[in-house]
Design goal:
The protein is mainly alpha-helical and 567 residues long. The protein folds into two domains: 322 residues, no CATH class; 226 residues, Methane Monooxygenase Hydroxylase, Chain G, domain 1 (Up-down Bundle), CATH 1.20.58.220. It has 24 helices and no strands. It is elongated.
Amino acid sequence: MSSEIFKIIITLFGGLALFIYGMNLMSDGLQKAAGEKMKKILALLTSNPVFGVLAGAMTTAVLQSSSATTVMVIGFVSAGLMKLPQAISVIMGANIGTTITAQLIAFKVGDYAWIFVFVGFIMYFLIKDREKVKNTGQAIFGFGMLFVGINTMGDIMKPLATSDVFASMMLHMQNTPVIGVLVGTLMTVVVQSSSATIAVLQNLASTAGPDGVHSIIGLQGAIPVLFGDNIGTTITAILASIGASISAKRAALSHVIFNLSGTLVFIWFIPYIAKFIEFVSPKGPETDVIARQIANTHLFFNVTNTLIWLPMIWLLVKIVTKIIPGDDSEKLASEPVYLDFKIIDQSIFATHLATKELLRISGFAYNMLITAKKAFLGSDMSAVKDVMKTEETVNSLQEKTVNYLASIMSSESITEVQKEKVSGLLHVAADIEHIGDHCKNIVEFAEEKTKNKYDFSDTALAEIYECFDQARRMMNDTMTSLENGDKDMAVSVLQQEKEMNKTEIRLRKKHMQRLYDKTCSPAFTVIYTDVIHNLEKIGDCCNNIAETVLEDVNYRLRSIDEAEKTS
């Protein structure tokens, strides 16, 4: 008897493992197949909460995991890219999006599981020269594996129906809904996937009880477990918010309150909900239709809960702000603001965060250029120290961002097109760091100039001012083109770089003429030419970044940036 129980348990967990593996494989395949279209999903993210719900639902439909969407949202909130009301609406949408898995299971697609496995295998493993076909094949193969796992769990549950002990447990759960809620919550906390535990619930409910006719648990017994599954899935958001900003913790808490409050309200109306679901669902023997009824209840719960809370997002924001008071403390300048390793497997969104961090670093580099100008032309020694300090910050941030980009490159969900773009961003990171190095060189010359009391002529200073101004304009236009993916601006930067090269040649010739006319000291020559050369090198770096933009390396998600400005 003990060996039989062991076999049931190990087969049940084996089927569950196949389900989760198949779901993750399908998710990766869908992400790769969707590619750049994933950005368009988040284009729905505006200050309008209705669009936030739609974006959350659509993103979850692609990722096949409300937990993955919620973790991504937590990361965006922590990075300051998404406001709390906006995040809450997306989380609501994620709860709706996750119901698609239960609906697919209820369609009894599992009867054709091995067909999907075979077709997916052919596309995924044998067709290697066409990436889109391979990615689609991976999704289909994972889809088939998902249902192989479900079928395995369903087959092993059938003997449980003959167990008087198990039947007694199910009857006790039917009579005490709170136990069902606790069981569902605990299962999802352990498994970390509400889709998986709901799949188990659907299979269990489809098993006939001792009478061989009715479900072993029944719809009224399954509904509390379903509520518990929804509560349990919030643990992922809680874990993701550990160590994150206060706003991120509030977003995670809002997810808990959303699902918990829905359960506390709906649990009193379980008999009425069951009658309503039975009325709107297909008719037939209970064991044949209960999987569909559970899927419809899952959808009903999340849609209704969203409709209740959507007009009251402001109230939810007030509640979580009251529970978690305080303001987000400023991060150290040398610490990344946007990078979040928790969403590294969502390569499109992770790359967007990396680009935001690169733009932040380029802002430091731009300030270094402005300060270097003060140091050299204004003999400001405090500016020299500022540039030296900022250069250390740029180096530290660049190193951490490169490490983040390398991690994205190693992600299983990344496509070949995305790899090329991440590679381009690695070059951008290097060029930004080089700009900082050139600014450091310039302030070292400024220090030497001031220490030795070199008195440049007004003409020489005006020429150096001209080069600084050209470099400043190029950097400003380069940052704009990278942020907005503005190819016209990038072309302008390339043209400016050519002018910068001509300027360096022209000014070198003019300086040589002053030396020949003996109107300039030879002692100034090295500093003058090296400062001009370093500014020209900054132009070269800007040119490299502009060329990367022209290769279509930009990840501006318009809605997020615009929502940040308007909300």
